[in-house]
Amino acid sequence: MLELEYYLILSALLFTTGVIGVLVRRNAIIIFMCIELMLNAANLAFVAISRSLGQTEGQVFVFFVMTVAAAEVAIGLAIIVSVFKHRQTINVDEVNSLKG
Amino acid sequence: MEFTLKTLIFYGFALLTVASGIVVVTVRNIVHAAFSLMVTLFGVAGLYVFLQADFLAATQVIVYVGGILVLILFGVMMTSGRLEMRIHIERGQLLLGAVVAIALLMLLLAVIANTPQWKNVADDGTQLQPTTESIGTLILNGQFLLPFEVVSVLLLVALIGAALISRKEVRE
How high is the ipTM of this complex? Predict the structure, then answer.
């Protein structure tokens, strides 16, 4: 029988992996993927707790998180593509001014 | 905790998920990172199945793998002149990032270990009903109707915004 703690520890590991990626990598798209990792870790914790409580409310929250993630990816990639058109780079250290 | 087939499968999925997550962070080629992210997303979907969230697992595969990942791959194709990139990270930054991440992990693990409600909540093996109906009832007939509408408007705004940002500028 699997306890809730195991899922939560897995979720914490996944979240920390995403945090490391956001802090260390400099490619904007990789940072994006790491944000997705973090969102997935939070979703996993939601589903695990929802399962252990025997309620489905937590799963509804996961739906909303997925929706926000989809919106975030659409907007973010549009911004990245448009930044790339202007600067020919998506290294976040080189894209450090708001003026085009 | 005895080693049954169930725990073995759980550890397999957990290892798959975390290992491919680490590959996403460390690999040089962006395309490889994207495909590794796909493995992570599939692993999480498998864990959802394991937690008897059947509808969510299907949605995870459809939305994340079928939608978001394809979008990210399009982004990779549209932005990279060269796929291989040198990872050069300043030492101080790497050290600081590692310290922050490890501190965060310790904090999370401490909270998990010290919250008594989360201890010994074992999966008693009862089969849940298929969750689709209760999720639908909660969203459309229950307390989540307003957030659902707000989120749908948010998606519409995001769609229009993405099209607006990435279109070609036409000067008159």
Answer: 0.90
